[in-house]
Amino acid sequence: MKPLRLDSTLIIIKGKALIIIKGKALIIITGKALVVIKGKALIVNKGKALIVIKGKALIIIKGKALIIIKGKALIIIKGKALIIIKGKVLIIIKGKALIIIKGKALIVIKGKALIIIKGKALIIIKGKALIIVKGKALIIIKGKALIIIKGKALIIIKGKALIIIKGKALIINKGKALIIIKGKALIIIKGKALIIIKGKALISITGKALIVIKGKSLIIIKGKALIIIKGKALIVINCSLMRCCLFKLPMTFHTNVF
């Protein structure tokens, strides 16, 4: 069929193909495919797929999927998922979840949870809780509580309380009280009072008084006075009076006193 010319428009029908040249625009319809070339833009509509090339940008629409390639950036929208690749950065948005991969770092935002993986470090933020895993160290911040696990050491900070577990040693600092458990030894510091329990020995320092209990012996130092109870013997030394008294305690002493 001969070409049909209308003003500046040229229409060519070749078999089932229709070619329209309008000014600088070229439209080709062949079967179910539509090709439009306008300036530097190329639009191809083939079946359910639409391809648009504009400058250096390429846009592909296939069904519900949209793919955009702009320079080195690639954007894919598939259903509710959005994927962006820009250089070495990959961003995925799926529903309420956001995943960012930057070099070796991975960031995941899922609902209220944020997960960051950077090298060997893992950071998780869930609501008010923060979890950090760095090498062999684990740090957990939950509300006002801070938990640190480093190798074999465990540190817990809850409000004003501090608990440290290092090997076999346990240290508890609660308000003004400090409790240390090391092996079989127990040390308690409360205000000005210090209590030490080592094996069967008990040492108590309260105010100006020192009390030592070792086996069956009891030693009390109060101010300038020294009291020693050893078995059935009682020794009192009053330094201010420079007196030393030795008493032989009766058999009933222990039951009466203790």
Provide a brief overview of the structure.
With 258 residues, the chain is mostly beta strands.
Can you tell me the CATH topology of the domain at 1-56? Glycosyl hydrolase fold
CATH class term of the domain at 1-56? Mainly Beta
Number of strands: 31
Oligomeric description of these chains: single chain
Low-confidence stretches: 250-258
Radius of gyration: 42 Å
Helix count?
1
CATH architecture field of the domain at 1-56:
Single Sheet
What's the average pLDDT?
77
The biggest beta sheet reads:
31 strands, antiparallel
Specify the overall morphology.
Answer: rod-shaped
Q: What fraction of the residues are assigned to beta strands by DSSP? A: over 45%
Question: Share of helix among residues?
Answer: under 10%
- Helix- and strand-based class? mainly beta
**N/C terminus separation:** 126 Å
Describe the structure.
The protein contains 1 helix and 31 strands. With 258 residues, the protein is mainly beta. It has a domain at 1-56: Glycosyl hydrolase fold (Single Sheet). It has a 31-stranded antiparallel beta sheet, with no helix packed on it. The longest helix is centred in the last third of the chain and has 5 residues, at 253-257. The model is unreliable at 250-258 (pLDDT under 50).
Characteristics of this structure?
single chain; 258 residues; mainly beta; Glycosyl hydrolase fold; 31-stranded antiparallel β-sheet; 1 helix; 31 strands; 2% helix; rod-shaped
